[in-house]
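Hello forum,

I keep getting stuck at the same step: I have a sequence, I want structure tokens, and every attempt I make locally crashes halfway through. Rather than fight my setup again tonight, could one of you with a working pipeline run this one for me? It's a single chain of 448 residues.
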Amino acid sequence: MSKSPPSSREGSLEAPTRHPLKWKSQDFSDEDSLLEELERVYDICHGCRRCVSLCNAFPTLFDLVDESKTFELDGVDNEDYWKVVGECYLCDLCYQVKCPYVPPHDWNIDFPHLMLRAKTIQFKKGERKTSHKLISSTDITGRIAGLPGINQAANAASKSPVMRKIASRLLDIHPEAHLPAYHRDTLRKRCKNHQPRSLPAIEAGPTRGRAALFATCYCNFNEPGIGEDLIAVFEHNDIPVRLTEKEACCGMPKLEQGDLETVDKLRRKNIPQLLKLIDEGWDIVAAVPSCVLMFKQELPLMFPDDADVLRVKKYMFDPFEYLLHRHKAGLLSTDFQQPLGTVAWHVPCHQRVQNIGPKTQQVLSLIPATEINAIERCSGHDGTYGVRNDSWKKSQKIARPVISRAQKMQADYLVSDCPMAATQIADGLELKHAETNPLSLLRKAYGI
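Reply #2:
Ran it on my machine without issues. Output:
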């Protein structure tokens, strides 16, 4: 067994250093090299166990060790290493908030990117189910499910017990998993004739006062109302808004499958479009944290020498991050018309790891007679993990502590910046109000 290098300290007061993802190197795709690194990292994780409460990857690892003959990693069969990989959905929280051995520590642990490396090898070996490839092709499935005739059939099938059993067999989607509706009247169709307001662009911090909305697959096809709420809120604050002219999926669903070549293809479609807007003076915003994270972190780590990718990173913003910059410059409207009472705000993992702080909470807290209570724990959804046959129950188990905390708060609203997480949590609650997105709440508070 490979041994972990000695270290004179645990943890660090230094900021973590995220190394670029060397996904094109020969070593990255070498399975023997991967297994050696998995052995090294798993052994360190077994000796630490701080991450046991984050997701199911770590309990799976620790159970394998504890049930082995030696009670150490050397008693675990190498084939069982892949069981841990299957439970990781790349939330990144272990790297950002728990692990004391991330670089610049000598042990140089980046568990999420190690899991990504393993998923990439699995994908290249053809070990990803066709159904998983299909449900992670969110832009394609959204376009097909929005077609006349197919749209009604798809939405009806999602509510039919018989069709859900068929989908369970063909698409590996659990019969009880919540499936979002698909809209024929997509966000792009709704905003086809929308023209940005003719207002002077006023800079505030890193924001330039004009925002181009990257619609995202989910807001375009599944919840277009969120995009409409963003536009209404931004325009109420004198920020001209337009949609990006064209866009493809951000690439996060394919990243989670280990399909990095498709991530690269999507990058080549999106970056030139976004760069053109940036050069014209537009900032970029997206209402789904995973999509923002893709452009802020994952693509820059995959392409650290690509100046265009790095420029897009600079001008990509979470909506509430953008609004708080405006508030600090005295440019945010506070003419709120309606208090919201008690709001349980679930903090999505992919928003937490952007290291921007609780911007949503800070903005919503400006509303009078409104109390925002944060829940910083994973909802367990992830996207595909929250609907697949083999992981749906595990996903529900991960969500239960979040649901329990929201119940104890007796909140009037439950919101999450991640619409999939919001649905997962709200399904387990009895709420007074239907709104589950903070942009929708902000619009409601403004009375617009």
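The mean pLDDT is 91. If your local run keeps crashing, start a new thread with the error log.
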